[in-house]
Design a protein that fits this description.
Elements lengths: L1 H10 L10 H6 L2 E4 L7 E2 L13 E4 L11 E3 L2 H7 L2 E4 L1 E17 L5 E4 L4 E6 L7 E2 L4 E6 L1 H15 L8 H10 L4 H10 L6 E4 L4 E6 L6 E2 L4 E6 L3 E9 L11 E5 L8 E8 L9 E9 L2 E2 L5 E2 L5 E18 L4 E2 L4 E6 L4 E6 L1 E5 L3 E6 L6 E5 L1 H16 L22 H19 L3 H14 L15 H19 L3 H4 L2 E5 L8 E5 L18 E2 L2
Helix pairs in contact: 4-5, 8-9, 8-10
């Protein structure tokens, strides 16, 4: 951190011009700026009106490359001091790891409803618990049914009538089978010749009871629901995929699934279905993975998957080879992404780029860079800060004498010192933690520090303390979202995580910065503490 601050202070005196001799640079007009507050300037030596530091001279040259991009000239000693590192742009595959959360559910296509075949009173239940396992042919309940008794008497009489009723006997037998009697019961009925007072009904299929709608003594009507059975021989892992992730997913891709109910186990299974209908509220699509149940782990032991348990999945996806650059090389200042290309001899050219898909460590380059370009991956933030200082100096090449007032427009965000960005990040993450914990008193105590951290960034939305958690969150959400967008290019250097919730009360898509885990939503607190996803 100290090395970066010293490098930033030293950068305020770097030459911005390309192919300018020392005499030419000396002859150019200069303005004086504060290294810590670049928007404070003067036409002559003075002190910063904010921190009291001496203003440093900055040349007004705005030399640009043949592509119209600024070129920064950096002494070799400074390159070594700030640890500038580069990487070559090349064609390679984009790899991405999608982490998803879902639930293990049963196969909905294998549900079976058991209904009353005949009207009557339930005398006894053999299956009396939800979660019980039922095998085909096992008794379900005893039913007293006048309708069943009448049908059985008709069958017995027809069987005794001989050839006179031979043609009607198959229809009477089929009727009893439809009413739930088995062949064994019909054989016993013919042997005794007398229908039983209570008829036992048996399960036509095997499965696990997931719903029970009948009790002893209940009078049921024909067609009334008694039990609902599910087949747990295979299970579904269902998760939601955001629409921006759908281009990465395809049927057949392998998902690695873990759950707390099976600690240490990783189940690998393919995606079998992607629902093409997105949820209008969450903008997500349901993805289905089929799992064997029980599954056999690496030690050869069979484990049963429980119904409705939460699980996490990891999808490793890859694209064909594309022109790609490290994500660390891309800076997004709000006006569009840029990268800095090493042109050797301490010269770095700024390039505006158009981005495609983002991988874990690489990003697709659609335009702005070519294969073989050496882009800056470490130190680009400081280069960008100096480039913006030079650009602003050129735009204000004729300041009035003694002018030390801030310019009318907001200073570029990337020109802010790393210490100011770090203070803003720390204050914002601490405030977010207080709101996430529903602790308005802690937020109120921290508010002066929060306000002070934003003084160097006057372009941020106004922030009000509020009188309670609701009003504080209402003001904090737009401010926090702007801060998250401002700090996004620097999160790796600042050790930040940026999260987004897609159903926030003010903006609909609110963002916040956070240090450490787990995710804690400041806009809802304990009501929806885990609402959000990390911004890639």
């Amino acid at each position: 951190m100290k090395r970066l601050l010293f490098a930033l202070l030293g950068f305020a005196t770097l030459s911005i011009a390309l192919n300018l001799s020392p005499d030419a640079r000396a002859s150019e007009a200069s303005i004086y700026r504060c290294p810590m507050h670049p928007h404070i300037k003067s036409a002559k030596p003075a002190k910063c009106t904010i921190c009291g530091m001496d203003l440093v001279a900055s040349a007004l040259s705005s030399d640009r490359s043949t592509l119209g991009s600024p070129v920064i000239s950096v002494p070799r000693s400074t390159i070594t001091a700030i640890g500038v590192e580069t990487s070559v742009v090349s064609r390679q595959a984009l790899n991405r790891t999608l982490r998803v959360t879902g639930a293990i559910d049963d196969d909905d296509t294998r549900h079976r409803l058991l209904t009353a075949w005949a009207e009557g009173r339930v005398e006894k239940l053999y299956v009396n618990l939800v979660g019980a396992t039922v095998k085909a042919g096992e008794p379900l309940l005893d039913l007293y049914s006048p309708e069943l008794q009448t049908a059985q008497r008709d069958f017995v009489q027809l069987s005794r009538a001989g050839e006179l009723a031979a043609s009607a006997l198959p229809a009477a037998r089929a009727r009893l089978l439809r009413l739930g009697l088995s062949d064994t019961q019909l054989t016993a009925l013919l042997a005794t010749g007398e229908p039983p007072l209570v008829t036992t009904l048996f399960a036509p299929d095997s499965g696990t009871v997931v719903a029970k709608s009948v009790y002893p003594g209940q009078w049921v009507k024909t067609g009334e629901k008694l039990f609902e059975l599910a087949d747990f021989s295979s299970m579904w892992f269902l998760f939601d995929a955001y629409e921006q992730d759908l281009p990465w997913l395809a049927v057949g891709q392998t998902v690695e699934i873990t759950a707390r109910s099976i600690p240490g186990e990783v189940i690998s299974a393919p995606i079998v279905f992607i629902n093409p209908n997105l949820d209008e509220m969450t903008r997500t699509a349901k993805i289905r993975v089929v799992l064997p149940n029980p599954h056999v782990n690496h030690a050869g032991i069979a484990h049963t998957l429980y119904h409705k348990v939460l699980a996490e999945g990891r999808v490793l996806v890859s694209s064909p080879a594309v022109l790609a650059a490290p994500r660390a090389a891309i800076l997004d200042r709000g006006t569009g992404p840029v990268a800095y290309v090493d042109r050797s001899d301490g010269l770095y050219a700024q390039r505006g780029v158009t981005l495609g898909r983002r991988g874990d460590s690489l990003v697709e380059i659609l335009s702005g860079l070519t294969e073989g370009d050496k882009v800056v991956t470490h130190g680009a933030l400081l280069l960008d800060a100096q480039a913006q200082l030079a650009n602003e100096a050129t735009e204000h090449a004729a300041p009035s004498a003694g002018d030390s007032t801030p310019p009318s427009r907001s200073p570029p965000a990337a020109s802010a010192p790393l210490s100011a960005l770090n203070a803003l990040a720390t204050a914002s993450s601490t405030a977010a933690a207080g709101l996430a914990a529903d602790d308005f008193a802690a937020y109120q105590k921290h508010f002066p520090t929060l306000s002070a951290s934003a003084k160097d960034f006057p372009f941020l939305p106004a922030l009000a303390l509020g009188t309670d958690l609701k009003s504080a969150r209402t003001s904090f959400e737009p401010w926090s979202t702007a801060v998250a967008d401002l700090l996004k290019p620097h999160r790796a250097q600042l050790g930040l995580k940026i999260y987004q919730c897609t159903m926030t009360p003010v903006l609909g898509k609110g963002r916040w910065v956070q240090r450490g885990l787990p995710l804690k939503n400041p806009f809802y607190g304990s009501a929806m503490a885990d609402c959000g996803d990390e911004v890639p």
